[in-house]
Amino acid sequence: MNIFVFVKRVPDTESKIRIDHKANKIIKDGLNFVLSPYDEYAVEEALRLREAHGGKVTVFSVGADEVNIILKKCLAMGADEAVLLKDDTPETYDGLRTAKIIAKVLKDKFMDYDLLLFGRLSIGADNGQVQTMVAQLLDLPQINVVTKLEIEGNQGTAYREIEGASEKVAFSLPAVLSAQKGLNEPRYETLKGIMMAKRKEIPVLPLEDLGMSAEELAPLMEVVNLESPPPRKAGTVFEGEAEAAAKKLAQFLHEEAKVI
Amino acid sequence: MVLVFIEVREGKVKKSSLEALSEGKRRADDLGAELHAVLIGHELDELAPECFSFGATKVHVLESTLLSQYSPSGFSRALKELVEELKPMVIFFAASSMGKDLAPRLAAWLNVGLATDCTETGIKDGRLTVVRPIFAGNVFATMVFKASPQIATLRPNVFPLVDPVDAKGEAAKKNVEITEDQVKDAVQEIMREEGSELDVTEAEILISGGRGLKGPENFNLLRELASILPRSAVGASRSAVDSGWIDHQNQVGQTGKTVSPNLYMAFGISGAIQHVAGMSSSKVIVAVNKDPDAPILKLADFGVVGDLFKVIPPLKEELKKIFAD
Ligand SMILES: Cc1cc2nc3c(=O)[nH]c(=O)nc-3n(C[C@H](O)[C@H](O)[C@H](O)COP(=O)(O)OP(=O)(O)OC[C@H]3O[C@@H](n4cnc5c(N)ncnc54)[C@H](O)[C@@H]3O)c2cc1C
Ligand SMILES: Nc1ncnc2c1ncn2[C@@H]1O[C@H](COP(=O)(O)O)[C@@H](O)[C@H]1O
Asked: Out of B76, B100, B196, whose CB is closest to A136?
């Protein structure tokens, strides 16, 4: 089975995000970047499928040279190959632009795949768009927010999380799937894996080589302002005996906040 | 025209879709445009009147037995054809599981941008502007669209419902031309968790517990509170989920669900940045924590420094009293 996984480099969840208001951009200095957590579940699932069915796992990332770090991490986890789709454009928050690049690569350069695995959402952009847009551009079945996956030959069954329930979807390969927490427990890199990843060459495919027009690559969304959310105004803190606290709390909910 | 996708689950229109329709009504009024709604599936005619009462003047009922179960490839195909015919300026979806699954497929098909999980919309110079929380709610991005239709998914529980009116409109039923091989990812079965309450994203009151609850059995304390409070559900921190005390479905936070209930109650939750990411857009936050320095207390509109095991029983009685009146 030939599995492609698409991964993104994102600021880690502890990051204190600061805004450059003049440029309308996030200040990158001081941020610690990681492999987006959901993408890690996707990589793990690919490795498990390879272990069960044989085949090959290739990871792709669209971004500047610095995304090599997360590609190395994927190699260290056990991926066979990694490819950098080199694009120096800063974050656009436009999922379709990234999806078009990925779809173009898959149409022209890497046509041989059985499964395309993604995270359900890249943290930061918090979009959850790219995978579905790729599925559409390639006219493939899509199953998002997958918590359980079974593959038999060229047929698959996936369970996806919805409000208070899960949906069972049967599909034919090739297909686009996006991983949700709960799908698996990602493995740690082994020392041997890290050493191998270090030596492994990561081929670079520059955006210019894809022959996409400026129009195709122009973002369809524009960020006109970035702002910190208004701070919540300080509330009441009650310290005292439990009965009195319960009374005060109930009173607050009923009479002041009027939420019950 | 503003077009709103109406999601149907178990034969009923989802509340989050009515919220999207309400917001659609406000934007259509700003634009002096018509408001249309679209239903997709099999035998949904009887749901049209509900859409009229929330402001739609016309409801498109796209009918096919092949679409009796949700499928992103099938539904997006039906939608795309309608959109090409109607040429709406704006399309809203609820940012529900279905909306988030479907909207990107439509946007890609139409080659237009998409704004996910918006918390505010407006019209400026005849174009849609949206605000969407990014970086887990740490940044609010105002965005505009370079192409039409301008498509956005709207976060549930954020947009107020318009007052329903007694209005009539036109229901336009159309059979969707679709073949079996164009439906590539249909849902076969929906498995509802046993005894599952409302989903955390849909609850108006969310009662969450963290590591301070000490064990799975103590989530029953929260379930008891939930049984008193209408439209409530039980949520959890990741620590509680990872300890196996409660299902992952209930996790609130950056790697869980984003919620914006009218009331968020945090019991024994410290308020780590990743947890806050998922609940900071709640309208009212209260917290009970025995540590006076817990970050959640700085966020709470009303915080109690105390032992949750001592506070919950009298709180239950107080709440019962309120609901008895
Ligand atoms: C990549 C990543 C993603 C993450 N995603 C999420 C996420 O989506 N959601 C999430 O919640 N976390 C997430 N986390 C974890 C997060 O960092 C915290 O570890 C977690 O939220 C802590 O859970 P907690 O508040 O229940 O536990 P703790 O931090 O241990 O807090 C327990 C609290 O209970 C209080 N307490 C104890 N006993 C009592 C008592 N008897 N009465 C009253 N109070 C009591 C304590 O004072 C303490 O404040 C993520 C972490 C990472 C690294
Ligand atoms: N720059 C990128 N390179 C490779 N994959 C990406 C990129 N951006 C997003 N993805 C994939 O698409 C998923 C959803 O991303 P998003 O739409 O940004 O939330 C991510 O979890 C990744 O699997």
From this structure: B76
